[in-house]
Amino acid sequence: MSGKAKIILTFGISVIMFMSIGIYSWFNTNRYKDDSKWVTHTYEVISKAQNVSSYLQEMGSSYRSYALSGNDIYLTPFYESGINTDKEIQVLKALTRDNKPQQILLDSINVLFAAKRAYGLTLISARRSGGVAQAKDLIFANGAQKMIQQSSETIGRFIHNEKELLAARLNKAEVQFSSVFMIIITSIILSVLFILVALYYFLID
Question: N or C: which end of the chain has fewer CB within 10 A?
Answer without folding.
Answer: N
